[in-house]
Structures are given as C-alpha cells and as structure tokens.
Amino acid sequence: MRFFTLCLLFAAFAASGQSDEPGLLVSQKRIALVIGNGTYQHASPLSNTINDADAISSALKSVGFDVILVKNATNRVLEEKVREFTATIEAGKYPVALCYYSGHGLQVDGENYLVPIDANPQRQTDVKWECLNAQRIIDAMESARATTKIILLDACRNNPLPKSWGKSTGSNGLAYMNAPAGTFLGFATSPNNIAYDGEGNNSPYTTAILQNLQTPGLSISDLFTRVNKTTQTLAAKEGKTQTPFFNTSLSDVFYFVPANQDSSKPPLVGVNVAAVNQNKQENSDSDFDGFPDDSDDCPKDYGTLRGCPDSDSDGVPDHKDNCPDEPGTTANNGCPVRDRDGDGVVDAVDKCPDVKGSKEWQGCPDSDGDGVPDHRDDCPDKAGVAAKKGCPGVDGPSGAETITDTIVGTFVLVKGGSFEMGSTKHDMEKPIHRVTLSDYYIGQTEVTQRQWRAVMGSDPPQLTFPGCNQCPVEQVSWYEVAEFLQKLNNLNDDVKYRLPTEAEWEYAARGGARSKGYTYAGSNTLGDVAWYDGNSLNKTHPVKSKQPNELGLYDMTGNVWEWCSDWYSSYSSDTQTNPVGATSGFRRVDRGGSWCGYPQGSRIAVRWSYTPIDRGSDLGFRLARSVNN
Asked: Which structural domain, as residue segments, surrounds residue 471?
C-alpha cells in the first residue's frame, strides 16, 4: 500500500486556437510530461505508480498528446525534466501542455512537494532542497506563457516523513492551493485528508480518470465531476471514503475530446473523434496499451508483445520468460545461450569466449587495468594508454603532458591561462566573468569503481551500477569523497590529491588554452563525447569510451556529475585569479551532466549543487593536483 502519494499532477495549457463559438477552446498541439516514481530509496516503495504513468501515457496519446515519459526520477532528473518540458513548450509553441505525476508527496508549512526517489530529508528544513515544490511546476508553466493551466493533485496515503517531526509539517494529505488566473485545480481528495491505493493496478482516482478521459463532448469541469463521482464509487467498494474536489478560474471551456463537430467548426488536431468513439463502443482496452482486451494476452498489464510486457526486450514476454531481466533467446525460454568461460558474457557476444573476462570489455580481461582489454593491448602486463594500444605514452589527441599514478591513473597538465567563465543561458551561470588560473593537473577520467575499491577496500554501500570496474564510482557524498582523499593522500608522502575548484573544472572542460569553443566538452555533437539520456540506456558506462576533449580529458560531459571543492554561491562579476569559491555555504558545486541528463543541461557552463551529505546514481568525482606536489 502506497502512503501519502501524489498520484497526478496535470498542467495543461490550451489557448492558441478558438472555434467560432465564443469561449470554446480548440487545441492544436498537445504535449505531456508523465512522471511515475515508485522505487524509493528512503521511503516505502510504491506498487501502482509506474502502472499509473504507463496507463495515463497511453490514454493521453490516444487523445492527441505527444508524451515525454519519465520513470523513477531522482531529484536532479525531476528538475531537469521540468526544465526540458518547459523549454519544449516554448520552443514548440504547444498551446496545450500537461504534466502528470505519480509518486510520494507531502506538505510542509502549507506548501506541497513532490518526492524524488532519492530524497532522504533528515529534518523538516531539508524538504525544500530534496523535494520539488508543486508551485515550481505552476511557475514553470507560467514562464512558458500559457494562458490556460490545469493542475490535478492525487494526494494519497500518510505522510512519509519521520514521525519525530510531529505535527509541525501540517496534516496528512496535501495543503489547499489557490487556483491562479486561468487555472483549473483538482484534488483526489479534500485538503489534509488521504486517498487510497486501490486493490487493482491503479489508484481509484487514476482509474476514474482513465475511464472518463476519452468521453467525447465533456468539458473539463463536467469530466472531473464524473471523475469525482467515479472515484467515490470505487473507494466505497473497498469500504473507504474518498471525496475529490476541484476549483477553477478558467475563462474558456476545454475539452480533452470534443463532441462530433460539423464542418463549419475547426477540428481538434491530432484526435480522430470517430475512432475514439468507435474504440470506446467496440473495443475495451483496460491497460491502454493499444491491444483491445479481446486480443490482449495480458489485458491488465501494459505491454508490447500481444499486450504483454517484455522487460528485457528479447522478444519473449515476461510471463513466458524464464530470465525476464536478462536478454535471451526463444529457444532457451528467454534465457541467454552458453557461456563456456563462465564470465557472465554469453558466447555469442564474447570476444574472448575461452578466457574469463568482464562484461565491460565484451568478455575479455584487462590484466593491467589500463582500460585497454588484453586482446587489444600490445602491452597487457604494463599499464598504458589507448593511443599507444595499451602501452605507456601520451594519450589523447592533445599531446598534453601527463603523469600516471599506479592507484588513480593518468593526470593531464592544464597550462594556466585566462578565460571567460559562465554564460548568459541561465541565471545560475551569470554573470560571465574573467578568471585567470595557474598550472594544475586534472584526472584524465572520473574516478572509477576499481580505483575507489583500491583506496577504500570496498565499493560504496549504495552503488547503483556495481560490477563495472572501469565505470565511474557513484553514490558517493562530498564527505565520503573527502574521506577517500584523506586515505589516498596517506598512501603518498609527496603527492596531495584534491577536488578541482569549479573554475579549474570549467577551464579544463572547455579545453584550456586549446579550446575550440565547443558547447560540450570536446564537441558540438553531444553523443560524440558523452553518455546522456539519449544514448545511455539508463546507466553509466566505462570511462574513455567516448571521444576526449581538446586536452585529452574523457567524460567531462556526461556519465556522472562531478563534485568540485567549492561551496555553491552566485557568481561575481569581478575579475578573479585562482578563485576557490565561497568560504561557507549549504551546498557544494557539481558539474558536467550525467547519463540521465538532457542536452540543454549538459552544456559546459551548466552548474548544479547538492548538500555535502547527498548521494546519487549520477553523482561521482574527478581528482586534481597542484603542480608543486
């Protein structure tokens, strides 16, 4: 059973086209951001939220929406997707925009918050930093210059915050919210009360929306009057009481599906009303996966193979797959074929099928740990670099001077110089200011899992993507990085490693004195140099598997965000020399984008920050050292 859940957050704008009938809104383009959070790291996992998101996504597509679907979003991903969604509304001039959220939610001091899957607030004051204020969604939509906004909040279950906080956070459920001009606000239940999960695959409120959304000829107010009635009926069948309500300041009438119109009225672009009507009358599709129930092998589960899910995309549906989380073959009932060397890489894709290796090197070993697997390494017993086929030498196209540490790898010399730091793209990046730096060394790659283990003796306890030695370490807080540095420096009498300053990080990412002015670190084409949400398959990847930048540095863009030494603060316009940031603060800087980032959030100048205790599956670090030690 889910507790205290925000099941729905709709934000729909409809304003760019009107019919001949005064006050009737006819939409032209529709877009939706659909978010489902369920696998919480520090709160009870939710069973129906992903089902809710999948079903709503399909239902919205059926009534003409373009859909951005996001599942199990961290705080950073949630923020990035809101920004991306808002930018898309503006760029595409979508007159209708809708945001749907299913996951934990809470109220603190009269404010409503959406809870990312990695949120772990220890105090009431942490909530505003670790969760997303629902008002942030409304404000973002306002900034996109939409005139009609529809916000629906399905506030469910009990408060997930520590009981020791007492009643200072407010009541159960969500707080009342006013409807700003041009806004429709709907709630799954009355303020300060709880809603229920339901005994099926979806919550009662979500089920009610799915049952009524495609009905032609219902205005938004009429539709949610029906939704409220249906929700009460569904809850009553389970012996519960749940009374949704809504308030509105809309001045025009909005339809998800209009009534059949005569030829003199402009049509609803993207919606085939006749097809919707026929489908409603003739073909029930309970899970909204496009397969009518009478031909759906799994009518209660959203799926793609005759209506059934296929989690590993191997062409064998989960209910017939003996290995549903591992791609296999039909002949092996969905399980992989033979693996004669027992390294976990099946023979069909194992480049070294008779020698035990690792998945990151396609089944081959890397005996010297230099990132060049033995079958490609001319010096398999001596750590080297890719440019020299695994033999010692200068790596990368830059020809920059390098030094190598046997524990933490290669460092590239960044010759000092001056540059313009920041950009005009975002307030956090302003103002552009001139910075001069002295020479320093910076790690050629992010610190890897192998390197972390060599210093600390074990993996971080919450590592999300284990078993990939050359993948960047992640799920490490700033304080844990400080502990790593202390232990590493105790192993070296003459060398002292540290985190780069934010200025050092940006100068190196730009290519230092060799900079060619790229948008990303090494290219204007993001996929050439970075693992991001468009190519990462929702995971990290081995370092040095994309092109380096002008200095021969890898993954300065993408893979994982990288901690810097600075406290976060606003930029100064003053010219600075070797700046080290504010002397104190609440959050530490991290830079570079990650495997779950989008292009606009992966630019070199983009800044982010976390509290020093925060961890994330997209958060790691890179080392630096001064030239005099």
From this structure: 394-626
